[in-house]
TrEMBL record, chain A:
Keywords, alphabetical: Amino-acid transport, Signal, Transport
Pfam families in the cross-refs: Peripla_BP_6
Species for this entry: Pelagibacter ubique
Superkingdom: Bacteria
Signal peptide: 1-26
This protein's record includes keyword Transport: yes
Protein name: Amino acid/amide ABC transporter substrate-binding protein (HAAT family)
Leucine-binding protein domain ranges (all copies): 35-380
Protein family membership: Belongs to the leucine-binding protein family.
TrEMBL record, chain B:
Protein's membrane topology: Multi-pass membrane protein
Domain of life: Bacteria
Signal peptide: none
Organism: Pelagibacter ubique
One Pfam family recorded for the sequence: BPD_transp_2
Taxonomic classification: Bacteria, Pseudomonadati, Pseudomonadota, Alphaproteobacteria, Candidatus Pelagibacterales
UniProt keyword list: Cell membrane, Membrane, Transmembrane, Transmembrane helix
Keyword Transmembrane helix: yes
Protein name, UniProt field: Amino acid/amide ABC transporter membrane protein 2 (HAAT family)
Length: 411, 349
């Protein structure tokens, strides 16, 4: 029965291997402050995961090259340990555990998407590890009483409710009919809640309320209904793929609707990829390069846009901008805390009140950023060149909203 | 026999001491236990019975949702817990948490078993590719359907009750580790004892030639259903534990995760050697080590590596590691090789 010997050898080798592979980094090594992050480098969120990672890296390079972080009279530099969470919440929770208990990370940066943040937040909370996240907007993240979670972005329910208000305003203050199509994921469903509240508030009526599968590749059935029902507003949210699918199929099926409101237009590079087909789409955004916020590192939105484009070869979507802002927040908090103690850093984060190129950042009790409004932009084309122009709120508007959208036969 | 006792007690001691020896790896070790359970139970269908099931993920996901729902529903209104993506927060007291978990796990084992019996009755008449495709559909459908049921959080997901504040920071990890380890031991004992009876021979007969088995008077349907129910029982338990461990259930990405877990359980069993008792255990362990290693050190290439692994398995180890060893060293598996007979056969050719 020598097979038993084989198995015994195998098991002992395994035990040895595991026990020797326990390597623990510390939170601060030499002059480096180690941050940890699980990022979607593969899977359905991979394009936005990369935007997030690029945003983080851009800010790390910038902060390090401009003098680093000064704590206790010494200068430190940021370094980030990344893992690929495969766009999977199960994996993300596991990686958060790993970053903290194996790699010894004591400060975390958020992943991409609300669902993954929902999976990671309980872990960071349990260990009391401060996490600044830039891409988890679901409202339920901020009602759980998490003390170590800080989001630089506005919650998801504020994404598109403004669009409904705008439609009502354009309709002479009268209620409108709304068709809704949302992907079945934490973020999009939260956007839906915001829209539902706006519908109720304005006395409008929802005529279509479709849930779409993840990794949205086809929404022809919904659009066929839209053609038949002719609503005043069509709202679509389904991350990057949802935006691309919607615009492609609306153009193919020549669906006429007076207002098309979406999310993730800039992450999907709609104006570039679909050009004139994406014209008139109204998009919710956390940030736009023309906003006039300023800071010492990236100067302002236009400069950030230029620097980012130079480095990565494409214009930064807001996912990248907010990710960069997360590091500015961390730097600021470390310097104010003047310590690496997790609790002190957490308290400093809670007291954050600053302006970055991305917007003002001040955290409410639940951890969400209440100091930065959402903006809506519309894709506008001049000849073949399409651009995103801010149309609301009026304070930042650089163009007038085009409403209603001209029908396909007249384009 | 002596060596067996030494081996099993060594493994048991290793299992009990592991979370203390490797405190930082508790979560990975718990997941390893779950993976082994899934591979062991898949092997009952895929390995012993020759029915390639992609539907075992259904029981795993069901177990996950059932356990979490019971744990919440016993003490709080479930609909309010999941409303608007779980905006309201209710806090389980430690007693409530553990009572709920125990009751939840009980249901998570029983309900999938019943479901397996019912579905099995309906679809185990299908054979070969038809059965595989049908079960594949089951998993996908379950994911999409559960993503539309509001009371379990629909597309927003279901946050399972957080572990109560008892003991130290380590207690959560230890609790889930020992829970999954106990389930692993139970599964192993069950599978091993089932394999030592006539039951295994029947399953093998079904795999080798189902019509002939039937002609011999074996009620194949009965055995197929019982086999599937055993798998469902432990898959449900594994799912229930995993839900608590991850803390957040998403319909297609965590619960009915056919694309990952559903495929991994097949891959692990094949890697180790399907149709053997130890194959799935070794396969799952190697797979987990491989995956953790590549996902850490070859970031960006991990799926390429996984693809290479699959190709290597298919080409060089079609029978898995155990099958390969068995072919190389048949005498170590208790097979008697008659050297003269073997030579005679070679010469004949």
């Amino acid at each position: 029965m020598k097979i038993r010997n084989i198995i015994i050898t195998f098991v002992s080798a395994l035990a040895l291997l595991l026990s020797t592979s326990v390597t623990s980094f510390a939170k601060v090594v030499g002059d480096k402050i180690i941050l940890g992050s699980a990022i979607s480098l593969t899977g359905k969120y991979s394009s936005n995961g990369v935007h997030t990672q690029n945003g983080y890296n851009m800010a790390v390079d910038r902060i390090n090259s401009m003098g680093g972080i000064k704590v206790g009279g010494k200068t430190y530099k940021f370094e980030i340990i990344y893992y690929d969470d495969e766009s999977n919440p199960k994996r993300a929770a596991q990686l958060a555990e790993r970053l903290i208990s194996q790699d010894g990370v004591e400060y975390m940066l958020g992943p991409y998407s609300s669902g993954l943040t929902k999976a990671i937040a309980p872990v960071t909370e349990k260990y009391g590890v401060p996490m600044v996240e830039a891409n988890g907007a679901s409202r339920s993240l901020f009602t759980k009483g998490y003390k170590y979670l800080f989001a630089v972005l506005a919650p998801a329910n504020l994404y598109l409710d403004v669009a409904i208000d705008l439609a009502v305003e354009k309709n002479g203050g009268k209620p409108v009919t709304v068709a809704m199509a949302f992907e079945q994921d934490a973020f999009s469903q939260d956007v839906r809640l915001g829209v539902l509240e706006a519908i109720e508030r304005t006395g409008s009526k929802k005529v279509i309320d479709d849930k779409l599968p993840k990794e949205l590749n086809d929404m022809a059935a919904t659009l066929a209904k839209v053609k038949a029902v002719k609503p005043d507003v069509l709202v679509v949210s389904g991350h990057t793929k949802g935006a691309l699918t919607a615009v492609r199929q609306i153009a193919e099926m020549k669906v006429d609707v007076p207002m098309l409101a979406m999310t993730h237009c800039d992450a999907a590079k709609l104006s570039k990829q679909h050009g004139k087909n994406s014209q008139y789409a109204l998009c919710a955004s956390q940030w736009h390069k023309t906003l006039t916020y300023k800071d010492n590192f990236f100067k302002d939105g236009m400069t950030y846009d230029a620097d980012f484009s130079k480095e990565f070869g494409y214009a930064p979507p807001y996912q990248a901008a907010e990710s960069s802002a997360a590091l500015l927040v961390f730097k600021d908090a470390f310097e104010r805390a003047n310590s690496f103690d997790k609790v002190k850093v957490r308290d400093a984060l809670a007291a954050t009140d600053m302006q970055t190129f991305y917007g003002n950042i001040k955290f409410a009790k639940g951890g969400q950023n209440t100091d930065k409004p959402m903006v809506l932009f519309q894709v506008m084309c001049d000849g073949d060149k399409c651009e995103n122009k801010v149309v609301a709120p009026t304070k930042w508007a650089s163009a007038e909203l085009i409403h209603p959208i001209p029908s396909w036969s007249k384009r | 026999m002596n060596k067996n006792i030494i081996l099993y007690s060594a493994l048991l001691i290793f299992g009990v001491l592991a979370p203390f020896m490797l405190p930082a790896f508790k979560v990975q070790l718990s997941i390893l236990c779950i993976l082994i359970v899934l591979a062991l139970t898949w092997n009952i269908q895929g390995g012993e019975m020759g029915y390639n099931s992609f539907g075992n993920i259904l029981f795993y996901g069901l177990g996950m949702y059932i356990c979490a729902s019971a744990q919440v529903g016993m003490f709080f209104p479930l609909a309010e817990w999941t409303e608007s993506g779980g905006e309201k927060t209710f806090v389980h007291s430690p007693t409530q948490f553990f009572q709920g978990m125990a009751f939840g796990l009980l249901l998570a084992a029983i309900i999938p078993t019943i479901v397996a019996g019912l579905i099995g009755y309906a679809i185990l008449g299908l054979r070969g590719h038809y059965f595989a495709i049908c079960t594949l559909g089951l998993g996908v459908a379950a994911g999409e359907i559960s993503g539309g049921i509001e009371i379990i959080g629909a597309g927003q997901g279901f946050t399972t009750p957080p572990f109560p504040n008892v003991g130290s920071l380590e207690s959560r990890g230890q609790f889930f580790y020992f829970l999954s380890f106990i389930v692993l031991v139970l599964t192993f004992i069950t599978v091993k004892s089932v394999y030592s009876t006539r039951f295994r021979l029947v399953l093998n007969a079904i795999r080798d030639n189902e019509d002939k088995a039937e002609a011999m008077g074996i009620q194949t349907m009965k055995y197929k259903i019982i086999g599937w129910m055993i798998s469902a029982f432990f898959c449900g338990l594994a799912g229930g534990i995993m839900g608590g461990l991850v803390g957040y259930i998403d319909s297609t990405d965590v619960a009915f995760d056919g694309r990952e877990m559903g495929v991994f359980m097949v891959l692990m069993a094949i890697l180790g050697g399907k149709g053997t008792l130890w194959g799935p255990v070794i396969g799952a362990t190697l797979f987990h080590l491989f995956k953790e290693g590549f996902w850490t050190y070859f970031l960006g290439w991990q799926y390429v590596a996984l693809g290479v692994l699959i190709v290597v398995i298919v080409i060089y180890f079609p029978e898995g590691l155990m099958g390969w060893l068995r072919e190389k060293y048949p005498e170590r598996f208790g097979e008697v090789v008659d050297e003269a007979d073997r030579k005679a056969q070679v010469e004949l050719k």
